[in-house]
Design a protein that fits this description.
heterotrimer, A: 249 residues, Rossmann fold, 6-stranded mixed β-sheet, 4-stranded antiparallel β-sheet, 10 strands, C: 316 residues, 14 helices, globular
Chain lengths: 249, 283, 316
């Protein structure tokens, strides 16, 4: 029996008295694009932090192709092929766009000799080639998101975790970014796990949605089903309708 | 028995120093390397006011402490606040201030040890041990000062404001708490505590221009052990360190006391960086 | 395409030219005094460059650099006087011992965020100074170790030797800074969490760069010991660390070559201030405050870069 690419089993996490993640079970097969939906505070970023080794789990397992990621340091997990972006874009201050991607290329999985050419190629793919030598602090928000993705790709991942990639973008930028993600998924054969709290953004992008609220999985299925799921709708009452357009930040 | 008493006295002085140091860090995120200078200025101020200005001891002490508090507020406002965005900047400037103070003291007073008069000259016999009254007074004064601080923070509005800022500076600002004024107040308290330590300990500890260095080292060690930003942690750690040093001094030799603080710091950083009571983990 | 800039032509030629000029100065103005000042300036240059490589690039400020200097110097003193070894052994030995200290001190402190590293280094230097005084039977106390044998008897030749070392070390560290090592260190300064997310073992890099920094500082300490022919606890003083940091500030943080200029400028300035005697340190500290407020990018590096622009524009 072949393992799924990523298996999360009974993952549990407390922050002091706060039970942030309760018995989370998620399976991701190779090649899928899975969306994690949930209102703010549901625990989505915490989940990512646990998956990538930034925080230790209290209980449960995270398996990458059957291999446990528990107790591994975050940079070692990257070495196994898991890359992530952050909700708040953090470029390396003081480094150019190209240098940012170069740093991502210095990890253990990249074997090419000419990382400079490879980095330029990545920038080209995300549409930032023209800004290679610009200081990264000067980028617009949309470009920063692309830089984040280029940098994550630079580590040569199999599994890409995107944390709210569309937050703060206008609708045309969202379209463009969605298209980019789809293209990368096709061409690089990536498996993608995507967090958003607005369903509209990724309805056409993902093949499956896992809905989370208050640290628990409340529903799982195709996007069309999730939208009509009563528990999901209930989770959003009092918060914005998940089908609404993203607002500008 | 000696260890019990002298350990307590040492711990009391350390507590005064550490609480002030951790207070200004917890509230304003400022690591003030000039903290030792407040200690030094307290001692020298008392010396100057009594021997040159001829003021009575109590007055000299109070004026000295007051002056140091004001000095601390001025330094914070003028020199430290503009550089608050850079932690290196704050460290550098506070260290530069400490050096300027040290050099000033050196130029004015020279490097010989000075004599700060004691408040109490008599020796008291406690449990069979002759202890200088001054040391016991130090212990008492420190306890009163820290106790007063505790009451102030717990039971006054201003105290709650201080707690609020140390927990969440942004939120506190939104609630209309004037953080700048609070910083100044906290700095004044911090400096005053350090100066008080200098005034009380001056009579029996060395008073010379470079006396500001060791208090900083000790304060840092205590704060690491107790937890940066935690007042009860600092007090507990002050006692731990004070007694550890006293024990080492009596049982092994007084040369080794310095190593205690180094070892404590390094060990703590390796095994439990948040300190005993640390709220903010260092990771 | 080349991923890393490497050392550009202007810097290399300019640097060699500057070295040549410095080397020839004593022949133009003969006299032991100038040679002495320049030798000390060169040693400060080594100390400043080594500090800049770690702290200037990563932004993790080392407030106890004097510890590595003192350790290197005392190693030289011990080996030479107490154990009677030939003076040339001091050089590798000081590097090794200082590097060890770097490892021991760096390991617990560099894993952590926040001010722990800076303060721990400061404390360590202060404590070392006290230890030298406390264990005076072994270390000679206040007076330290005397009668160290010089490496090279002729002051001019020794100066050239030190200058050559300065040139070599600066070249090496500047090259490192412009290689992938330097890129990683600068990225660490930018954002450590993101570095981890890029798969880099940042603590390893931080500790490694501290060890390198410490080794060269120790080497400088040994060179100083064989120049002054004595070592004392004063070497561990906070003032030494602050002086070096000031030199780096004046030179330009993170540029590697800038601090050399900073060291030169400030050493010459200090000599000029000799007449002020006891006021020297005071002026130094006030100068530091001034620079922190008004010249955070330093003087040397920005000027050099401006020159470089001029030259590259003139090329057809």
């Amino acid at each position: 029996m072949t393992h799924a690419l990523l298996e999360v089993k009974h993952l549990d996490k407390h922050f002091g008295g706060l039970h942030v993640l309760k018995d989370i079970n998620i399976t991701v097969q190779e090649g899928e694009i899975v969306g994690i939906l949930g209102p703010n505070g549901a625990g989505k970023t915490t989940l990512f932090n646990l998956l990538t080794g930034f925080i230790p789990a209290d209980e449960g397992q995270v398996l990458l192709r059957g291999k446990s990621l528990r107790e591994m340091r975050s940079n070692a997990i990257v070495g196994l092929g898991v890359a992530r972006t952050f909700q708040l874009c953090r470029p390396f201050v003081g480094l150019t766009v190209l240098e940012n991607v170069l740093v991502g290329s210095l990890g253990p999985r990249v074997k090419t000799d000419d990382i400079g050419a490879r980095a330029m190629h990545l920038l080209d793919q995300v549409g930032l080639a023209g800004k290679a030598h610009t200081a990264s602090e000067l980028l617009s928000y949309g470009d920063l998101r692309r830089l984040e993705i280029a940098r994550a790709l630079a580590t040569d991942p199999e599994l890409l975790l995107l944390d709210e990639p569309f937050a703060g973008l206008g609708s045309s930028e969202i379209e463009a970014l969605s298209e980019l993600i789809r293209k990368l998924h096709r061409e690089q054969k990536l498996t993608i796990l995507l967090i958003e709290h607005k369903l509209r953004e990724f309805m056409q992008l993902v093949s499956r949605v896992v809905a989370i609220d208050f640290g628990e999985v409340i529903a799982e299925g195709a996007p069309a089903d999730i939208v009509n799921n009563p528990r999901v709708i209930e989770a959003y009452i009092g918060r914005q309708n998940p089908l609404e357009q993203t607002q500008h930040a | 028995m000696e260890i019990l008493i002298y350990g307590a006295v040492t711990s009391a002085i350390y507590a005064l120093l550490a609480v002030g140091f951790t207070l200004i860090f917890g509230v304003a995120r400022i690591l003030n390397l000039a903290h030792g200078s407040f200690y030094a200025l307290g001692a020298y101020g008392t010396y100057v006011l009594t021997s040159i200005a001829g003021l009575p001891l109590w007055t000299a002490a109070l004026v000295s402490i007051g002056f140091v508090a004001v000095f601390g507020v001025v330094v914070e406002k003028v020199l430290i606040r503009p550089l608050r965005h850079s932690q290196l900047g704050v460290l550098m400037i506070s260290l530069a201030v400490a050096l300027v103070v040290e050099q000033t003291l050196f130029l004015v007073f020279g490097s010989e040890y000075r004599n700060v008069p004691s408040f109490v000259d008599t020796k008291i016999n406690l449990g069979g041990v002759d202890v200088a009254g001054q040391r016991l007074l130090t212990l008492a004064v420190a306890a009163v000062a820290i106790g007063a601080l505790y009451l102030f923070i717990q039971f006054t509005r201003l105290g709650s404001a201080i707690l609020a800022i140390s927990q969440d500076p942004e939120a506190a600002k939104y609630m209309g708490i004037p953080s700048d004024k609070i910083f100044s107040l906290v700095m004044a308290i911090s400096a005053a505590l350090a100066a008080l330590a200098g005034v009380m300990a001056g009579p029996f500890l060395s008073v010379q221009p470079s006396m500001h260095l060791l208090p900083i080292v000790k304060a840092f060690a205590i704060v690491v052990v107790g937890g940066l930003g935690s007042i009860p942690g600092s007090i507990a750690a002050a006692f731990l360190l004070g007694y550890a040093e006293t024990c080492v001094a009596y049982l092994i030799s007084s040369s080794w006391t310095e190593i205690v603080s180094v070892l404590a710091t390094l060990l703590m950083l390796v095994f439990r960086p948040a300190g005993i009571f640390g709220k903010r983990a260092a990771f | 395409m080349k991923a890393f800039r490497g050392l550009d032509q202007f810097s290399v030629t300019g640097g060699l030219a500057a070295l040549a000029v410095l080397g020839f100065l004593p022949t133009l103005f003969p006299g032991k005094y100038l040679i002495g000042v320049l030798t000390v300036a060169a040693i400060y240059g080594i100390w400043s460059v080594s500090w800049d490589f770690m702290s200037g690039l990563t932004g993790r400020e080392n407030f106890g650099h004097s510890l590595f200097i003192g350790v290197g110097a005392y190693t030289a003193g011990f080996l030479n006087v107490q154990f009677g070894w030939g003076p040339w052994w001091s050089l590798p030995a000081s590097m090794v011992i200082a590097a060890l200290f770097g490892l021991v001190l760096g390991f617990p402190t560099l894993r952590l965020r926040g001010p722990y590293f800076a303060l721990a280094m400061l404390s360590a230097a202060v404590i070392m100074q006290r230890l030298m005084l406390i264990f005076w039977e072994f270390t000679g106390g206040e007076e330290g170790i005397q009668d160290i044998t010089p490496l090279i008897k002729d002051p001019l030749h020794y100066y050239w030797f030190v200058l050559a070392l300065l040139g070599g070390i600066t070249w090496f560290l500047a090259w490192m800074a412009r290689s992938r090592w330097g890129l990683i260190l600068r990225a660490i300064r930018g954002d450590e969490a993101t570095c981890l997310a890029a798969g880099l073992p940042i603590t390893t890099y931080k500790i490694a760069s501290l060890i390198i920094s410490a080794a060269f500082a120790g080497l400088g300490g040994a060179l100083y010991a064989h120049y002054q022919l004595q070592v004392s606890p004063q070497l561990f003083a906070v003032v030494t660390s602050i002086t070096i940091i000031t030199m780096v500030y004046v030179g330009g943080m993170g540029t590697i070559f800038g601090p050399v200029g900073g060291a030169l400028l400030l050493t010459l300035m200090t000599e000029g201030l000799r007449n002020f005697g006891e006021w020297r340190l005071m002026i130094y500290s006030l100068l530091l405050i001034f620079i922190l407020f008004f010249l955070p990018n330093g003087i040397v590096a920005p000027t050099w870069n401006r020159l470089r622009h001029l030259f590259s524009q003139e090329r057809p």
